[in-house]
Amino acid sequence: MDMYSQSLHYGYAVFEGIRSYKTVSGKTRIFKPVEHFDRLRESALALNMPYPYDRDELIQATYDLLAANQLNDAYIRPLIYAPANMSFAQNTESHIVIEVWEMQPFLGEKLLRVMRSTFQRPNPKGFKIHAKAAGHYVNSILASQEAKANGFDEALLEDMNGNIAEGPGANIFFEKDGHLFTPAGGNILMGITRATVLEICKELDITVTEKICTYNELKKADAAFFCGTAAEVIGWSSIDEYEFPATWSNTISARIQSAYKQRVIEDEKTEKSIAAIQNIEKMTEIAR
Ligand code: PMP
């Protein structure tokens, strides 16, 4: 990267966080690559960055990179950055780098002690918050460091209206009386894992409500979890001084966690054949 890039000086860059897994049959499979590379494009366009890249080529390049580095369970980080330009003017070109490395679950595998952050998420009127822009992560870093400095594992941030929003790098769900709740879109990054959790809920007949959620509601919940590509699905033991009363392994949140673990290591064919079976079932129903 050029030392005079707006990306370095102003955080003007966009990126993705993707994972690949070794599937049950031993193949390397990138989880939801289309969704991630489409979001990368949308993030770049939201920031007025030129985006001359082809999605399928990027996916193929990522597979080649994983193979060249002999990685299957990996974290994948494409970053679009700006050329030399110290003004605020728009650029006529962009650069891309894709980095891959082995990474354990981002927030570990133990239940988390979470702290209500004193930092709010960026105001959607000040930032394109649906974009995964590098500069937004100064907010994430501040919140996460504050939580750790206070002896917690991770932060929970509220939005500009004081409703609960998300973690520094993950979305949140909480469980009450067998139902799940998650903050609605608008003031959060719409996570691809969040969408996967919603799909899993549908398949497992778990009811989930997307709505404005408050800190007080969270403090009456039975259980809660973070979900994100890097974090995967990870439960909480507490928020501030409130300990979640349900035993994690008995919660529907834990069922979602194991369904997610299973889903990411499925072979593509398995997924397709499940879809095919569901289609056949639908057609049989129509025929009836
Ligand atoms: N919110 C924030 C602020 C994030 O950085 C992330 C990680 N990209 C998420 C939510 C979860 O998004 P995803 O499931 O697409 O990784």
**Mean pLDDT metric:** 94
**Based on helices, strands and strand pairing, what is the structural class?**
alpha+beta
User: What hetero molecules are in the model?
Assistant: 4'-deoxy-4'-aminopyridoxal-5'-phosphate
Total helical elements? 8
The ordered string of helix (H) and strand (E) elements is HEEEHHEEEHEEEEHEHEEEHH
Which stretches of 5+ consecutive residues score pLDDT under 50? Answer: none
Largest sheet: 9 strands, mixed
Summarize the amount of helix as a percent range: 25-40%
- The beta-strand count equals 14
Radius of gyration, in Å, reads 20 Å
Tell me what portion of residues adopts beta-strand conformation: 25-35%
Distance between the termini: 62 Å
Name the overall outline: globular
Describe the structure.
The strands form 2 sheets. Strands 6, 7, 8, 9, 10, 11, 12, 13 and 14 form a 9-stranded mixed β-sheet that branches. Strands 1, 2, 3, 4 and 5 form a 5-stranded antiparallel β-sheet that branches. The radius of gyration is 20 Å and the shape is globular. The termini are far apart. Strand 13 (232-239) and strand 14 form a beta hairpin. Helix 2 crosses helix 3 (55-68). The chain is α+β, with helices and mostly antiparallel strands and 288 residues long. The model has no long low-confidence stretch (mean pLDDT 94). It has helices spanning 6-10, 33-46, 55-68, 137-149, 192-203, 215-218, 252-264, 268-287; strands at 13-15, 18-22, 28-30, 74-81, 95-101, 112-120, 154-158, 164-166, 171-176, 179-183, 208-211, 223-228, 232-239, 242-243. Bound molecules: 4'-deoxy-4'-aminopyridoxal-5'-phosphate.
